[in-house]
Write a structure and sequence with these properties.
Layout: E1 6-7, E2 22-29, E3 32-34, E4 41-43, E5 46-54, H1 60-69, E6 79-83, E7 94-96, H2 99-112, E8 114-120, H3 147-150, H4 155-164, H5 182-188, E9 203-204
Parallel strand pairs: 1-9, 2-8
Antiparallel strand pairs: 1-5, 2-5, 3-4, 6-7, 6-8
């Protein structure tokens, strides 16, 4: 399906992107970290490649959908880390938890066309302070993506809602939770434009 991220089949070749907006997310999921920094390992993990992701629409919500597609919950113990281009896990990982982090990754992916993300399902890495590194300032520059239009949320807020069992899907931290997200939707979606971005779709093959 054009315009929708899809999980690549194990025997399928990686795509070649003519569209500068497209990229692939390589997600290490379903495993657990063990060891200290020098011997840090990710055990029993599964690598999923999500092709056809879009710089213009990518958000924390997509990452959460990828995690759930692998059969895992997203809760207060879930953390996501970015392996910087040209580095390895042992070189340090960047914690991804808000819109600014997503924008930084989108700056990097314009050239790299691939994001390497790892999921910590037990917050193990947060106890190893020397493993978490800041996102380099070169990726923190201006980005032509309007983060309000993309409507991504704070990961911590989503996790809290998931844990509390709140029936409303996801509350934005900048809006009154009692009002839901209707006001955010109305502010950022043009009802006259049918671009099919109003609802997240996901394709797993």
């Amino acid at each position: 399906m054009d315009g929708v991220p899809r999980c690549r089949c194990f025997d399928e070749d990686p795509p070649y992107y003519d569209d500068p907006d497209k990229f692939t997310v390589v997600l290490e999921n379903n495993g657990f970290f063990c060891g200290l920094k020098a011997n840090l390992q990710y055990v029993t993990g599964i690598e999923d490649c999500w092709d056809n992701c879009s710089i213009a629409t990518f958000s924390l919500l997509w990452i959460e959908e990828f995690i759930r597609a692998g059969g895992n919950e997203v809760n207060e113990r879930t953390s996501v880390y970015w392996i910087l281009p040209g580095t390895e896990m042992k070189d340090g990982m960047c914690l991804i938890e808000n819109d600014a982090d997503i924008l930084a990754m989108m700056n990097a992916v314009k050239d790299e066309k691939k994001l390497f993300l790892m999921v910590d399902h037990s917050n193990f890495i947060k106890g190893l302070r020397d493993v978490i590194i800041p996102i380099p300032s070169k990726y923190r520059g201006q980005n032509d993506i309007d983060e309000e239009v993309r409507g991504s949320r704070q990961l911590s807020s989503v996790m809290q809602d998931s844990e509390s069992g709140n029936d409303s899907d996801f509350y934005d931290i900048n809006y009154d939770a009692e009002d839901g997200d209707d006001d955010l939707f109305l502010d950022n979606v043009d009802s006259e434009v049918h671009d099919h971005n109003e609802q997240i779709q996901i394709v797993v093959e």
